[in-house]
């Protein structure tokens, strides 16, 4: 027996949920297959719990940055209350609310591990071992997400290493934490657990943090983490780890001959696609790899318009908000093609995820916050863009000085001189994550700088940095 739907979605994370919802809104039918919790990694073990852990420390830092408020905040954070607040947001992994939402939207949920079983067919193996087959009239959308990649460190797979999952869901603060990595997860989790009282050491193979960003981002986060008391060791890699069976402490050996003793080790060095057991081989695709797609999120390695991939697994923009954006485009393409129209990719089409190429906003909730969108200066030059970069210290803006005493922040615009438009922006400092959307709109809208001059920021706000940047450019 086969149950048939217009669209079968494998993976109930942010991308899968949105794809199914938009398909149903278009008048088609859809079903979601999920083996774990509906809502995916973001809801329970990544974005949501990490920001819940980070916010109390940020609130304290904001109070400390203003004389008069500083004197009112005299104690440390209450770890038990911080962890309890996090659990209120995540429900400790209970996905009842998310599953109920699917039901209310008219989207059946099939719990179990889904894998392709040929063209337009998905076999779902339930927890009890029963197998159910789902057939798609139109399309299968794959959104299995990714899983942590562990570095090649001897013994790491035997110590009960932390990944993002344990780092965002732990029930107690470790006394000593070693973090392997220097990217977003490493920096945010170092910030969160240090603010809760842990002694934190970062082992960073590179010579800077956030190496894919503008240099100012890594420099500011390094200064912020160091100010919090985090020890950062650049140009160092862990080579061997071992956990003591009696004390439960972990010994970490590094390639420069040092030995560290800690209570937990967090590996935060990247992600790999969850495609090893997705049945890709049944349709002629290699198992275990990423799934390249076009701008409609159609898997390009297959002929026909029936297999799509959204979210991290397509390796375009591994961020929750971009997974949802891709899902909207994917669903629109499926509906368009179901109606007999071609849904060719092109500018400003609802079914074309073109922002993946030009305007991917990112936000890191460290001290200070950092945010970016579009191209770095280096990436723009490597792409052959005629570039001019403009920078400004945000602390020189009246609104920033009022917002925080000794406001520290940096703004950088990357301008395409041939077109007179912004193609990249990086911001650091308090409120940076809230300010970045202005740059996103400017890049997507291709708004000429002389037009931005007439978008007057209110006084006295931190947004006045846009006026200062334009003045620095020469307008």
From TrEMBL:
Residues annotated to bind FAD: 51, 114, 312
One Pfam family recorded for the sequence: Pyr_redox_2
Domain Pyridine nucleotide-disulphide oxidoreductase dimerisation: 360-466
Coiled-coil intervals, chain numbering: none
Co-factor binding details: Binds 1 FAD per subunit.
Entry protein name: NAD(P)/FAD-dependent oxidoreductase
Entry cofactors: FAD
Superkingdom, natural source: Bacteria
Matches recorded under InterPro entries: Class-I_Pyr_Nuc-Dis_Oxidored, FAD/NAD-bd_sf, FAD/NAD-binding_dom, FAD/NAD-linked_Rdtase_dimer_sf, Pyr_nuc-diS_OxRdtase, Pyr_nucl-diS_OxRdtase_dimer
């Amino acid at each position: 027996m086969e149950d048939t739907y217009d669209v079968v979605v494998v993976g109930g994370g942010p991308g899968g949920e949105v794809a199914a919802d938009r398909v149903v809104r278009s008048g088609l039918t859809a079903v979601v297959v999920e083996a774990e919790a509906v809502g995916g990694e973001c809801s329970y073990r990544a974005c949501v719990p990490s920001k819940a852990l980070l916010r109390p420390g940020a609130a304290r830092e904001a109070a400390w940055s203003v004389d008069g408020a500083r004197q009112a905040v005299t104690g440390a954070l209450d770890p038990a209350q911080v962890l309890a607040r996090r659990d209120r947001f995540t429900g400790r992994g209970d996905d009842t609310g998310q599953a109920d939402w699917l039901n209310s939207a008219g989207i059946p949920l099939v719990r179990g591990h889904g894998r392709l079983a040929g063209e337009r067919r998905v076999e779902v193996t339930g927890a009890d071992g029963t197998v159910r087959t789902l057939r798609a009239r139109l399309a299968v959308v794959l959104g299995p997400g990714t899983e942590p990649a562990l570095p090649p460190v001897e013994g790491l797979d035997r110590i009960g290493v932390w990944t993002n999952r344990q780092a965002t869901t732990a029930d107690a603060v470790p006394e000593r934490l070693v973090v392997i990595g220097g990217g977003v997860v490493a920096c945010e989790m170092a910030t969160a657990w240090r603010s809760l009282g842990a002694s934190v050491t970062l082992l960073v193979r590179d010579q800077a943090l956030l190496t894919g960003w503008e240099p100012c981002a890594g420099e500011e986060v390094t200064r912020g983490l160091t100010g919090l008391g985090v020890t950062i060791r650049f140009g160092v890699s862990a080579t061997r780890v071992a956990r003591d069976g009696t004390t439960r402490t972990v010994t970490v050996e590094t390639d420069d001959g040092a030995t560290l003793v800690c209570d937990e080790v967090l590996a935060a060095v990247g992600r790999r696609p969850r495609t090893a057991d997705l049945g890709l081989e049944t349709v002629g695709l290699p198992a275990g790899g990423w799934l390249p797609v076009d701008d409609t999120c159609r898997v390009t390695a297959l002929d026909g318009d029936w297999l799509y991939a959204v979210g991290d697994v397509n390796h375009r923009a591994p961020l929750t908000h971009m997974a949802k954006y891709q899902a909207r485009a994917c669903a629109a393409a499926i509906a368009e093609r179901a109606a007999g129209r071609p849904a060719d990719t092109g500018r400003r089409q609802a079914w074309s995820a073109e922002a993946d190429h030009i305007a991917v906003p990112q936000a890191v909730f460290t001290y200070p916050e950092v945010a970016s969108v579009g191209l770095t200066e280096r990436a723009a030059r490597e792409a052959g863009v005629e570039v001019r970069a403009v920078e400004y210290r945000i602390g020189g803006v009246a609104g920033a000085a009022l917002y925080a005493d000794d406001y520290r922040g940096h703004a950088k615009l990357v301008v395409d001189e041939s077109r007179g438009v912004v193609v990249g922006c990086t911001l650091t400092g308090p409120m940076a994550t809230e300010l970045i959307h202005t740059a996103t709109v400017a890049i997507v809208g291709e708004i000429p700088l002389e037009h931005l001059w007439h978008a007057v920021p209110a006084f006295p706000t931190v947004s006045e940095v846009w006026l200062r940047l334009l003045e620095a450019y020469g307008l």
